[in-house]
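Hallway conversation turned thread

IA: we were arguing at lunch whether anyone had actually written out Flagellar basal-body rod protein FlgC end to end. Turns out nobody had. So, for the record, here is the sequence (136 residues) and right after it the structure tokens. Reply here if something looks off.
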Amino acid sequence: MSMFKIFNVSGSAVSAQAQRLNVVASNLANADTVAGPDRSPYKARHVVFETTPMGDVGTAGVRVTNVKEDDTPGRRVHDPKHPQADAEGYVTYSNVNAVEEMVNMISASRSYQNNVEVMNTAKSLLLKTLQMGQGS
């Protein structure tokens, strides 16, 4: 595998993890929202990744194939005085689990950082190779 393919592979992973971070941020921003007038609360979203070939045999990257909504029912809290309460006095909140989303955020952030580090290391190795070629 060419050293330059490393940038394609890591770049695809960085792009996918950036999209995952955006979805996690959206989920966290809507963690405590309630169902609107249509009675449908915000549903958590999750990124689906897929391995994708990068040209050479054996070289693969990653891409986002889908962003799925979580069909888990929203959290129902009994609060008859809330303006969005239903006839039984329950308010439906989003199904976002903030702890799970924080774990996803940390995981995506570390994956992003690791792939940036791979690209920086590859760049450093290529620069050292060029310097060795200039010295002779």
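OS: looked through it. The chain has a mean pLDDT of 90.
IA: good, adding that to the notes. The radius of gyration is 22 Å.
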